[in-house]
Model the fold of this input.
Amino acid sequence: MIFKEKRNETLQIRLRSPLQRHLFRYWQLYLMMILPFFYFILFKYIPMFGNILAFRRYRPGLGPFGTEWVGLRYFKMFFKDPAFWRAFRNTLTLSVLNIVFTFPLPIIFAIMLNELRSRNFKKIVQTISYMPRFISTVVVIAILSEILSPSSGLLNRFLVDVMHKTPTYFMNDPQYFRPIYIFSGAWQFTGWTAIIYLASITGINSELYEAAEIDGANRFQQIWNVTLPSILPTIMVMLILEVGRLLSLGFEKVLLMYTPANSEVSDIIDTLVYRTGLANQNYSYATAIGLFSGIIGLILVSSANRISRSLTGDGIY
Done:
């Protein structure tokens, strides 16, 4: 053991470059990064070359990068397409409602968990709350379909037998699409996201609470003046990430909830790209729509990060 330590010390002395010494010291961590690194290169960065199809006409069987340059032709097409603007409006509305109603919930839930005095009860509640995160989206929509079924669903049975009302096909009604989407998302991800805020809360210096208590602050005042300001950097980072996903909703979930009857409110940019590209095989047009959505997302992230830095001094970069 002593010989091994001396050999490592000798090797570190020979590595004169700070970068070489750093890599030698943390080589296990960099070894663990190899697989995620190649994952992002293979599935995130290489596919970006396919965006060239937004500027070239694609014909099946005549090359993966199109046959002729058409410039901004497809961008001009979807800017004049009413279906695109309907999808854009639905995406923006659903995203804003999702942020307004679901973003504060994990923060409130994490603070409530932190205030629990029983450690065992706290662990039980936390475990139960983040378990829905591991349920497949397909299963979640299947459960919702059963509960909201107009013939055998629990909710409609209650409305019919107790309230004496006619059954409602909730999953097919446009006015219920957005509430169902937001409620199911809050149920599935509130507990999981609260873990991040709870970890941030546990890192707060306990002396701050002691000082606030000496000054006469009650529990609510301690939360308002100590807890929230201390976790504000984490809140801002999470908010910036949410803003970046403003035009990128859960495609699978929306597609599973989509019906011709509720298409007026459920058709979003991702489903429009899916139908245009795979169903109608207009790949260049679909690529142009997807590229436009990505550019808007990049602008939103940069703007939100700049605003966050100017107001709080914290951001993601």
Notes: The longest helix spans residues 174-202. Strands lie at 56-57, 68-69. Residues 164 and 202 are 50 Å apart (CA to CA).
